């Protein structure tokens, strides 16, 4: 009887760990999807496909300033081999560098939030923020085929 309870407890711990891994991956993916959704209208404005809208830009920059701070904290060691994750092992191998990219993205977005007042300043400052996305993806995210 004791061994049955022990085995059931181990299984419950394993299931709990698996759920925790998937939760953290879902949280990471949710933050990334939110950032992607914010960059779409920004990209349209950058290309002249949408009119410049300062309120949309500021709302987007707030998300781009906050989400990276939350995001980099969602890579516990036990999520390294989580299914459905697109994170490369380099996230855990170069954790300090990965976290510094999140900090830089957040700081660049905050700087842009303070300095973008019109379309000219938007076109000058926004590329500095968006290049952070590509830099981090190139080094820490699996390439899609």
UniProtKB/TrEMBL annotation:
Signal peptide region: 1-20
Coiled coil residues, start to end: none
Classification via InterPro entries: Cyt_c/b562, Cyt_c_II, Cyt_c_prime
Keywords for the protein's UniProt record, in alphabetical order: Electron transport, Heme, Iron, Metal-binding, Signal, Transport
Gene3D superfamilies: Cytochrome c/b562
Keyword Transport: yes
Protein's UniProt keywords contain Calcium: no
SUPFAM superfamilies: Cytochromes
Protein name: Cytochrome c
Source species of the chain: Microvirga terrae
Source species taxonomy: Bacteria, Pseudomonadati, Pseudomonadota, Alphaproteobacteria, Hyphomicrobiales
């Amino acid at each position: 009887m004791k061994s049955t309870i022990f085995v059931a407890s181990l299984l419950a711990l394993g299931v709990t760990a698996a759920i925790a891994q998937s939760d953290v991956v879902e949280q990471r993916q949710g933050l990334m999807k939110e950032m992607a959704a914010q960059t779409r209208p920004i990209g349209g404005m950058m290309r002249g496909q949408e009119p410049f809208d300062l309120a949309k830009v500021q709302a987007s920059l707030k998300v781009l300033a906050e989400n990276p701070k939350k995001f980099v904290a969602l890579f516990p060691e036990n999520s390294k081999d989580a299914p459905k994750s697109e994170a490369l092992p380099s996230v855990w191998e170069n954790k300090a560098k990965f976290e510094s990219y999140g900090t830089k993205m957040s700081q660049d977005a905050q700087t842009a939030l303070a300095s973008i007042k019109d379309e000219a300043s938007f076109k000058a400052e926004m590329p500095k923020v968006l290049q952070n996305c590509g830099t981090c993806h190139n080094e820490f995210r699996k390439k899609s085929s």
